Amino acid sequence: MGTDAIAAYAAAQPEPYRPVMDFLRAEIDAALPDAEAKIWHGAPVWFLEGNPVVGYVGRKKHVTLLFWSGQSFEEPGLHAEGKFQAAERFLNSTADVAVDDLRRWLDKCRSIQWDYKNIVKRKGRLERLC
Questions:
Q1: DSSP helix/strand/coil, 48
Q2: b/e sequence 27-49, b meaning 16+ C-beta within 10 Å
Q3: What letter would DSSP give residue 71?
Q4: What is the pLDDT of residue 87?
Q5: CATH second-level architecture of 2-111?
Q6: DSSP assigned state of 96
Q7: Extended strands (E) in 17-110
Q8: What is the torsion angle, in degrees rounded to the nearest 10, for the CA atoms of residue 82, residue 83, residue 89 and residue 92?
Q9: Is 75 left (phi over 0), alpha (psi -120 to 50) or beta?
């Protein structure tokens, strides 16, 4: 399901955002070749051992790149999202993607993770995995 569904997701987005999504997908796939990619809650998300680590979604004014454990990355280019550990970056074109930053953040997906996979079982409490 993953790759075909993700390609279909990008194809259904407004033209300005398709190149951004295609670029992000290529970078994420290269950095996390062992990750499971699928459409989750309506958007492309990559999982390591069942734990969501990175994804993106097309919005009205931009593409949102989301790292589930991104607040713990302590990176100035990412902004807190929600009440847990997620952080995001808004992108309007491929020119908005700082490739070195993106690759560093994708590396951190492996070494810094909070256990979102079991958040329901723990009644909304997150525990750090690594």
A1: strand
A2: bbeebbeebbbbbeeebbbbbbe
A3: G
A4: 98
A5: Alpha-Beta Complex (3.90)
A6: G
A7: 36-40, 43-48, 51-58, 63-67, 79-80, 87-91
A8: 0
A9: beta
Query: 17: Cβ–Cβ under 8 A, 6 or more apart, which residues?
Result: 58, 62, 63
User: Which residue from 99, 98, 130, 125 is spatially nearest to 113, judged by alpha carbons?
Assistant: 130
Cross-sheet strand order for the sheet of 63-67: 36-40, 43-48, 51-58, 63-67, 87-91, 79-80
Nearest-CA neighbor of 116 among 74, 79, 66? 66
Q: SS3 of 6, please?
A: helix
Q: How is residue 70 annotated by DSSP?
A: G
Contact 38, 2 (CB under 8 A): yes
Half-sphere exposure of 54 (CA within 13 A, CB side): 25
Whole-model pTM: value is 0.91
Poorest-pLDDT segment among 29-33, 40-44, 63-67, 115-119: 115-119
- Phi then psi dihedrals of residue 79, to 5 deg: -120, 140
